[in-house]
Design goal:
Elements (H helix, E strand, L loop, with lengths): L22 E9 L5 H8 L8 E3 L2 H6 L10 E3 L3 E8 L2 E7 L10 H5 L4 E6 L8 H9 L4 E6 L9 H7 L8 E4 L4 H27 L1
Parallel strand pairs: 1-5, 1-6, 6-7, 7-8
Antiparallel strand pairs: 2-3, 4-5
Length: 208
């Protein structure tokens, strides 16, 4: 048995030079008004999510189209933030982007350094996704469409959603329940996989 001499520093176990360093990925959650972005971030976050929600005022209701979410009383005015872990050494930092036109000036700042995005969709109001889809397509940011299965809403097949949104071939469409942690994490896993494939393909293309 090896004993340390009095006053000496106990020996430390050797560092594992082959250990994989921890990785943190930045992901965005976007979509139309009232589709469940804050709900999704809150459901999957392991920490108490940061929210910047304010109550809707009459001027705000006139400025925003709330026809598809009449019972929604609050709105995100900056962003939501949460964190979750997918596996050993892999953490995801989630940034929920505001959807209203008057807050779009924040998007470039929020999107900086993001690996990819979830575009959350209400199957009853797919057209509300067009601004987010256009934003990510034009900037080459990988994204998946998460179709939030609201109670009472008609189910839409992934190919039907892809056609309605005119998505690029290969863009994943994932049915989900934004309230359910495991369902939300499945969407994030699909996003990480999709973004990884796209970034690898671009890297190989640039090298070749």
């Amino acid at each position: 048995m090896d004993f340390a001499h009095p006053g000496s520093t106990p020996s430390q176990p050797p560092e594992d030079t082959h250990a994989t360093p921890p990785m943190a990925l930045k992901l965005l959650v976007a979509g139309g008004f009232g589709v469940g972005k804050s709900t999704l971030v809150g459901a999957v976050s392991e920490i108490r999510p940061l929210r910047t929600e304010e109550e809707l005022t009459r001027p705000g209701k006139r400025a925003d189209d709330t026809s598809g979410a009449r019972h929604k009383a609050t709105t995100t005015v900056a962003m939501d933030f949460g964190r979750t872990t997918l596996g050993p050494g892999l953490s995801l930092y989630l940034f929920g982007a505001p959807d209203q036109d008057r807050f779009w000036f924040l998007w470039d700042e929020v999107a900086q350094g993001a690996l990819g995005a979830v575009v959350l969709a209400d199957p009853r109001r797919l057209e509300d996704c067009f601004p987010a889809v256009d934003y990510f397509e034009h900037r080459g940011i990988p994204f998946v469409v998460g179709v939030n299965c609201f109670e009472g809403a008609r189910a839409r097949a992934p190919y039907e959603v892809a056609h309605a949104l005119d998505l690029d071939p290969g863009t994943p469409v994932v049915p989900c329940d934004a309230r359910d942690r495991e369902s939300g994490k499945e969407v994030l896993i699909r996003l990480v996989e999709h973004a990884g494939r796209m970034h690898t393909a671009r890297l190989l293309e640039s090298v070749g």
